[in-house]
Amino acid sequence: MADDSKSILSMPVRSRGERVTVLADSLGRDSIVISQGCRLCGFTRFEIVGEWDRHGDPLRTVACWRCGLVSHAQIPNAEELRKFYEQEYRSAYNGEEVPSPKRIVREWDRARHRFESMRPYLRDGDRVFEIGAGAGCNLKQFQLAGYRVEGIEPGPGFSQFAREQLHCPVECKTLEQVGGTGEYDVALLIHVLEHLPEPRQALGRIRQLLRPGGRLYVEVPNLAAPHAAPGKMFHKAHIHNFTPWSLAALASATGFEVAKVFSRERDRNLAMCLSCGSSARLQYDPDGYFRTKSALERYSTLRYHCRPQYVATRVSEVAQEVRRRWQMQKSYAEILRICQGTTCNPVRCESLRAAA
Ligand SMILES: [Zn+2]
Predict the structure, then answer these.
(1) Interacting residues of 160 by C-beta distance below 8 A, sequence separation 6+
(2) Are residues 160 and 40 in the same domain?
(3) Which range of residues forms the domain containing residue 41?
(4) How far is the CA of 324 from the centre of ligand 1 (A)?
(5) Which of 1, 181, 202, 333 is deepest in the core (most CB within 10 A)?
């Protein structure tokens, strides 16, 4: 680290005029100071845990020394984010302007599993709101089961698809453009939180949108499980990377309690049902940083690919993909047929859902 320290000391942080400084504690661990602080606990000392993104482009990633939250060293501002999504995101990460049939068939399958997970936590008459609703596949499951639904999605092609093809009420909006408080009983936040520069602020706002007794289904990539080979874990679009303990800490800081963890420890995605608590007070795992470090260092590239779990998952994924491709046109047409002219009559829609 000594050689690296020199280069870090002399390296101005991009675009903000800030400089990073290397410090070492009594255990000899090196940390850097970032004056903006951790977006969860506010601490300003971090350890560098990555210098590259999954494509081999420079991306400095750090872990907070206090709570263990992993994030970009430089959290982009609104203008930088806008440029990234306009100029880089779609070409670098296979983004689509409008959802392909393949995406819809895949998302529909996943959405059905999510709905089944949440079913025990739903009550008759619940009003459901999805933030970052994409093409509307998740929200549509709730609508088909008879719940009142609304969603927002910043991508115009996706929100239009949700409205026109799935007949699902998704508006082209961001969370900042949503007014009101205590409007909804259930919120869905699926693969959105990791993209946000201020996750604590966003979750706090979603807490305000929920009524007392409200519930939130949240899903993010699971940094604590081996979801990618070492060196391919970090993603420019994922500003924050969550573990079960950092997500639980974020929930506590924003007035939520963990009602249920749906995912298993080894699952690539972390899925939880959070319920509205009585107060907001940050409670983080004091060992969070060490647990995060240990999860990140668990595998070498060779050991990652040789795990029986990796081989089994890949085989299962390939089999699923072959099945989806084989049946894709038929499945896609069937999804559109189910959604065509749908109403929220629970009995009729339940039978349609089961037939899908
Ligand atoms: Zn922190």
Answers:
(1) 98, 172
(2) no
(3) 15-72
(4) 41
(5) 202
For residues 53 and 124, membership in a common domain is answered with: no
CA of 40 to the centre of ligand 1 (A): 5
Q: How far is the CA of 2 from the centre of ligand 1 (A)?
A: 25
Rounded to 5 degrees, φ, ψ at 247 are -70, -40
Ligand 1 geometric centre to CA of 249 (Å): 10
Cα(257) to ligand 1 centroid in Å equals: 19
Taking the centre of ligand 1 as the mean of its atom positions, its distance from the CA of residue 317, in whole angstroms, is: 35
**253 alpha carbon to ligand 1 midpoint, in Å?**
12
Q: Is residue 154 domain-resident? A: yes
Domain harbouring 274, CATH code: 3.40.50.150
End-of-domain residue from the set 28, 55, 72 = 72
**Measured distance CA(37)–CA(53) in Å, rounded:** 22
Q: How confident is the prediction along the chain (356 residues), in pLDDT tens digits per residue?
A: 333 332 222 233 333 334 455 555 655 567 899 999 999 999 999 999 999 998 889 999 999 999 999 999 999 998 998 888 887 777 666 678 889 999 999 999 999 999 999 999 999 999 999 999 999 999 999 999 999 999 999 999 999 999 999 999 999 999 999 999 999 999 999 999 999 999 999 999 999 999 999 999 999 999 998 666 666 789 899 999 999 999 999 999 999 999 999 999 888 899 999 999 999 999 999 999 999 988 888 766 666 666 677 777 778 888 877 777 778 889 999 999 999 877 544 433 444 344 44
Ligand 1 midpoint to CA 38 (Å): 5
Residue 185 to residues 32, 128, 148, 199, 317, Cα–Cα distance (Å): 42, 6, 10, 20, 34
Give distance in angstroms: CA of 285 to centre of ligand 1: 10
**Has residue 280 been placed in a domain?**
yes
Contacts of 92 by beta carbon, 8 Å cutoff, 6+ apart: 55, 236
103 occurs within a structural domain: yes
CA of 250 to the centre of ligand 1 (A): 10
Q: In what order do the strands lie in the sheet with 184-190?
A: 170-171, 148-152, 127-131, 184-190, 210-221, 269-276, 256-261
Going from the Cα of 49 to the center of ligand 1, the distance in angstroms, rounded, reads 14
